Amino acid sequence: MSSPATLDQRHFRADGQLSNLDRCARCGELRSAHGQDWDCPASGKPGRAPAISFVVASLVTVAGFIMLSTASGLSSTRPLNTLGGIFFAGGLTIAVAAAVVIRKQRTVSTGDE
Q1: Phi/psi of residue 53, each to 5°?
Q2: What is the largest CA-CA distance in the chain?
Q3: Are residues 66 and 105 in the same domain?
Q4: Which of 29, 39, 90, 94 is most buried, by CB atoms within 10 Å?
Q5: In whole angstroms, what is the distance from residue 45 CA to residue 105 CA?
Q6: Each residue's pLDDT tens digit, 52-92
Q7: What mean pLDDT do residues 27-37 have?
Q8: Are 57 and 104 found together in one domain?
Q9: Same domain, 57 and 10
Q10: Whole-prediction pTM value?
Q11: Residues with Cβ < 8 Å from 70, sequence gap 6 or more?
Q12: In whole angstroms, what is the distance from residue 79 CA to residue 53 CA?
C-alpha cells in the first residue's frame, strides 16, 4: 500500500496546500468524500444516466426529423412542423451533452486526458 502523500499527488492539487474542497481528478468528488487511503468512492463505476439520456435524446431527435420531413410542404401542419423543429433541436442538444458527459466519464475512469 502506498502512502497517502503519494496518492494525494495524483488525485488532488499538487501545489502543497491541503484543502477538503479539492476535487478528485478521477471521480470528481470532494477530498473529504475519500477514505483515509484516498480511494475513490465511485471506484470507476460510471453511471447509466448519461447513456440512457443519450439514447432517449437520439430517439427524440429522430422523431423530430421525421416530423420535419413529413410536414415540410403542407400548410395545415404548421404546428407539427414547429414541434418537429423543437424536438429535433432539443434532442440533438441533449444527445451532444450526454455524449460529452460519457466521454468525460470514460477519460476520468481510464486516467487518459
Answers
A1: -60, -40
A2: 71
A3: yes
A4: 94
A5: 9
A6: 999 999 999 999 999 888 876 666 677 888 899 999 999 99
A7: 70
A8: yes
A9: no
A10: 0.56
A11: 77, 80
A12: 26
